[in-house]
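Methods — Computational structure assignment.
A single polypeptide chain was analysed. Its primary sequence is given first, followed by the predicted tertiary structure written as C-alpha cells.
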Amino acid sequence: MKLTDSVELCNLCLEDIDTDEPLQATHHCNDCNKKLCNIHSQLHKVKKSTKDHSLTLLEQQQLTETAISSTSTPTIEQVSSTIIKSTYQAHHYCKHHEGQLMEAYCKDCNDVFCIKCAAFKHKLHDYVDVNEIAKEEEENVKKLISELIIKKEIILQRNDQLKLTITKVKEQLELNKNEINLQFDDLQKELNKKKKEQLLLDMDKIGNEKLHSLQNENQLLDNCSDKRKLII
C-alpha cells in the first residue's frame, strides 16, 4: 500500500536505509520525541535502552489538542475514553515478562503488572483488575476535561471582554483627540482676535502720537509765519 504525503510516517523506518517503504506512524515516544509505527513501538518496549520510555497514541495527541483548541470540541466521553485506551495500549505488555499482558494495578506501588509479576513482586500488595482502575481514571479524566472546558470558556469570555474594552478605549481616545482639536481651534481663534485688537490699539496709539507730533510742528511753523508778517 502506497502512503500519501498527508500520512505521518515512522521516524525509525525513515532512518533505516534498508527499509524500502516506511510504515505509518501510530505512536509517539515522549522521551525520544519520535513517531513510531506498530512494529517499532513494540520493539521500543522490549529494547533495554528504551523499554522505560513513555509512548502515546498519535490519536490521543490529536484529540487532546482538539479538545482544548478546536471550536468543534469532542465530547468529554470521547476524549477521556481515547486517552485511557491509548495509555493502556501504549503500556499493555509487561516490560519484565515478554508477551504478558498487564492485567492488574497495584495500589501500593501505583503500577500495572502482569500475572507473573503478581506472584512475586506484588504478592502481598493491594491490587485490583486493571479495567476497574481504568474506569476510575476515566472518571478523573472526564472531570479534568470538564474543568479545562470551563476554563476555556472563561478565557474566551475574558478575551471578548478585553476586545470590547480595547474598542471602547480607542473610540474614547479618538473622541478626546477631536475635542482637544476643537478646543484648540477655538482658543486659537480667541488668541488671534485678541492679537488683532492689540495690534489695532498699538497702531492707533502710534498713529495718534505721530499725528500729534506733526500737528505741534505745524503749529510752530504757523506761529513763525505770523511773526514774520508782523515784522515786515
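Note: Strands lie at 27-29, 34-36, 55-57, 104-106, 111-113, 127-129.
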